[in-house]
What does this fold into?
Amino acid sequence: MAELINPVLKGFHPDPSFLCVGQDWYLATSTFEWWPGVKLFHSRDLAHWERLPAPLTRQSQLDLTGVADSGGVWAPHLSWCDGKFYLIYSNVHNFGGTFYDVDNYLVTASDIRGPWSEPVFLNSSGFDPSLFHAPDGRKYLLNMAAEYRTWKVRFAGIMMQEYSEAEQRLIGEPRMLWRGSSSRTTEGPALYYKDGWYYLFCAEGGTGVRHCEVVLRSRHIEGPYERGPYEPLITAWPYPANPLQKAGHASMAQGADGSWFLAHLCARPIGPEGDCILGRETGIQRLEWRDGWPCLQGGTDEPRLTVETPYPDCPVPADSAEGVDWAEEFDAAVWDDRLQSLRQPLGDRASLTARPGWLRLYGAQSLESRFRQSLLAARQQHLRCRVQTRLDFAPADYHHTAGLVYYYDNNSHYYLALTRDERLGRVLTLMRRRLKQFDMPIGAGVPVPDGALTLRLETNGASAQFFWSADEMQFTAIGPELDATVLSDDAPERILHENRFTGAFVGLCCQDLTGQRRCADFDYFRYTSLEK
It folds into this structure.
């Protein structure tokens, strides 16, 4: 036997869909407004995970242009049937107000590494879709039903409708399977079949500290569904001292050896306010069956930090180093896939050949834009980390900026920008956007010499600090110590009452507010954990 330590996947990997095919375990996770769409992972031992190629790499499969912050790809669902992988996903264009504007799609592939098909449109009635392959060969789509009428429950329940693979469309009428419990916010449905029972998994309680997973069952696929004695299946709400909070939104899978495991959403808050700077993550728990019901091993509903697995000697995949130190030197034909762009592929806004060994970014719109940005960023995976780059940039005036960004979304970010001031010449300045409030705490900035500069960001849990150097040896702090909790999932809940889901990113960016595409060159991107 072996042990794994949760969270299995550090950083930006929430809303897991769990699948086992033969000896191979797979996870699919949300990517929200970040491109390309959906993260896929593979493992043989549940502890070491290999990053697989992203399935949604063409804008014909996924168009995120203009989607809301924390919108885009929500809760993908991965399944396998008759030699084919099926991936279901939502594209949430708008949420947080009265309406959910969302489209649900299906793509397929014979190989998990792709290529993946063009999408089949399914419906727009709600999010968190999943596909169930019934024992009789029929297929059914499930999703939560969104409600806009003010006198109704906003999360109206779980709908099911048959899917015709031959016709590539939904057929028949949708049927309400369950309207949810008093915990409300019923979402994330997944259906399983075992020993003559249909098991309906649902997330409830919202994605905050009251989050939980519930299980119902029925002898008939259309119900009625009854709740079980082991409910909730998992939650951290009664256990405020547990370092894994927000536990819920789960799916289960059975290994080839007969063992059952649960993949679930969780988060690791810090500080008195419980800020989740690292966003939502994925954990794994051991399942057992009692009286025909799944429950966490030992009969508890509390998530555990350490979980026993039956895989002691499995070799570690060569590129399974999620969450360790890594660097992108921009020497290859493509950059590391941990670096993502916002809402669109960068296309002609980036080049790895214009200056060999460097990434060239062509200036585009501001960091507040939901359309054309020149930004390439990676998920923050440790509360204490260092990110560093070397920048070569010749701004002509204040319309031209390039540098290092600590980013949550277009309303919350810190930006160490190289630009030009009319009086001071070439300067490094700091832009601070905190929950829709913008300021520049060091004003016009600090004059810097010509030539390439090295920029650095160091995070220390709830705080962060930028540095710069002209020689890559002696670094000088610039600007004030920054409040990193503003870049947590939870900050707006205390101030703006908005929902955010992605966690913080660190990255490289370039803007030309004249529209003339002035370019900046970046020699490398290096990420180092300071938690050793």
In short: The mean pLDDT is 94. Helices lie at 491-495. The two ends are 26 Å apart (CA to CA).
